[in-house]
Amino acid sequence: MARENSTWGHRRIQGELSRLGYPIAPSTAWATLHAAGIDPAPQRSGPTWRQFLTAHAHGTIAADFPHLDTVSLRRLYVLVFIEHSTRRLHPAGVTAHPTAQWTVHQARNLAMTLGCRMDSLRFLIRDRDSKYTCYFDGIFEADRVQVLLSPPQAPRANAICETVVGTLRRKILDRMLIYNQAHAMAALTEYIRHYNRHRPHQSRQQLPPDSDQPPTPAAVTDSQGHRIRRRPVLDSLANECQRAA
Fold first, then answer.
1. What band does 139 get if pLDDT is binned at 50, 70 and 90?
2. In the chain, domain spans
3. Dihedrals phi, psi of 37, to nearest 5 degrees
C-alpha cells in the first residue's frame, strides 16, 4: 500500500487495513514500514512528471517551434500546438521571420479558434525560446492557463509535442520538397487534417483526435460485398482507407 500510494502515512494505511478487516495498532503499521525501509511520513515522494501529465491531460496543451528548409535553402519556422487529451494538432502558422509579435498574434488566433474550449485548459507547456514573450504567455494567462517552462535541453519534458513534430518530419517534411512559405502551410494543413480526422492513435484506442466513438465493427460477410477504397493524401505520401459505399 505504501509503495502504490506515496501520500499515505502510517495512520492512513492502518485505517485502510482496519476497513479491510485487519485491525492493527498504528504503532504496528509504523514499525512495519520502518522495518521495510519505507518512510512512514506522508508524501514520501512527489508525483513524477509522467504521472502529472497523465493526471492533467484533459487540461494541458503544448507548443513547439520546429523548422524546415525549402529547396532554395531558406529556413522556415512552424508554430504548432497539440492538446494532450485528444492529441488534436493545431498548425498556428509558418513564417521565415518568427518575431515575438508574430508569435503573440498566432497565440491570439489559437485562443479564438478554441473559443470556449480554452476554459477547460489549465496548463501550457513550452520551452524557453526567446520568441515566447510575456505577451505570448499573457494570452493564455488571461484564460487562467498556467504556463509551464520545460528545463533547458530537456525535450522529454515536452515529449508529446516533440513526438508529433517527429511525425511531421518523417511523414511529410523529409519526404517532399518545400518550395516556399505558402507551399509549406498548404502541405501541413492537408496532412494535419488527415492527422486529426483519420490517423489512429494508440493512446486513444486507435481513434483519431476528432473522433470519440469507435467505428461499428464490420460483419464477416461485409468483406464479400464491400470494397476498400484508398484516398491518397499529399500525392500518396499518406493514404486513408475507407469502405466504399
1. very high
2. 1-46, 51-96+105-112+157-201
3. 75, 25
